[in-house]
Amino acid sequence: MKMRNVLLLITPSSAGRFAGVARFAKGHGWHLTVADRLTHALNGWTGDGALVTLRDDATTLSQIRSLRRRGIPVVDLTIEHPEIRLPRVCGDNAAIGRLAADHFRARNFRSVAWFSTSWGHQHRLRCDAFSEKSLWPGDEPFRWAWSLDPASTKSDDWRELSRWLGRKLADAPRPIGVFCFDDADASRVESVALSAGLRIPDDVAVLGAGDDRPLCESQTIPISSVSHDLETIGYEGAMLLERLMASGRAGAPEAPMFVPPRGISERASTDALAVYSPLVAKAIAICRKNLANTPSTEQLADELGVSRPTLDRAFSADTGMSPARLIMRLRLDEAKRMLKSGSQSVSEIAYGLGFCNPAYFTNTFRKLTGSTPKDWKRAAAQMQPTSAAVS
Length: 391
Known about the structure:
- By secondary structure, this protein is of the alpha/beta class.
- It has 3 domains: about 5-90 and about 230-260, Rossmann fold (3-Layer(aba) Sandwich); about 95-230 and about 265-270, 3-Layer(aba) Sandwich (Rossmann fold), CATH 3.40.50.2300; about 280-385, Arc Repressor Mutant, subunit A.
- The chain has helices spanning about 15-25, 60-70, 95-105, 120-135, 160-170, 185-195, 215, 230-245, 280-290, 295-305, 310-320, 325-340, 345-350, 360-370, 375-385, and strands at about 5-10, 30-35, 50, 75, 90, 110-115, 140-145, 175-180, 205-210, 225, 255-260, 265.
- A 6-stranded mixed β-sheet has the order 7-6-8-9-10-12, with helices on both faces.
- Helix 2 links the parallel strand 3 and strand 4.
- It is globular and about 80 Å long.
């Protein structure tokens, strides 16, 4: 097997992409040379191919042009510059946006917003898909892109950005779900919201992208995030580059290969059901206090001082569900959190949440989620990334 000398020009550093490339390289005799956009000593580099993330900076663009002029195959692992013709393996940004929209719709959020500090082609793809999929009748998602706003005279000024974002959050209807381009942007939203005295997720639910676990899980309120499958992108990009190196750049695909997201890692920042009726909010608060022994609909109506039909109508108008169905959803949401933690058995979870026996819990869980508790737990574990990701 001939050893390939392959250049990695991947910035910012991405553990997920590196892991995928390294897995392929180990089995195919590659020697990897790692560079970054600040490396100026590439003019004399000789090798067989390069994996890159094409960004806006002039240094990276110049380096890639130099490689191509020398006949070295290059595969781009992003789609930030679709106008530059390169073979590409990249994330499906539109699918990421649609998945985020589905996440908020499932939680009854009628007001949603997009936030990003910068703006480019990938931002547009995610934002447009999120906005189109999240539309409720008569509602238009907010688009908060800091670098596009005339107010952003100092794009790198944290205090100016914080004041601007604080005004956006203060003027927005609540509750609101905010989908952010990446986890760094999500952490900014959380910081500004908490500083303004807003509750997360009750007033502002925050969803990032990239599932950078150290970043997401170290926040005051751990951040939910779309799991961008960067490891598969790295592996598939390496596979494509191997084919191009073997064929002398011939047969490069015209269209990019899009890798779908793996799902959403749900954390506390979106652990809410958007409620707009004070009556429904009070009812849910009562039920959350003891999910193992929730009151019947009649008992709940009596405790709230309303009739059963009044309570039913309020729940239907606000959530589209009956009180009994919503209470069951609260219990299953808690069951998912307990399954994900892995500290209790299915039987312990069933009895702990007030189900009469584990079989009834399993049948109910399967009916409403499409999988058994054990299968759901296994799938959730497989979705967790093996390393941190950067969008």
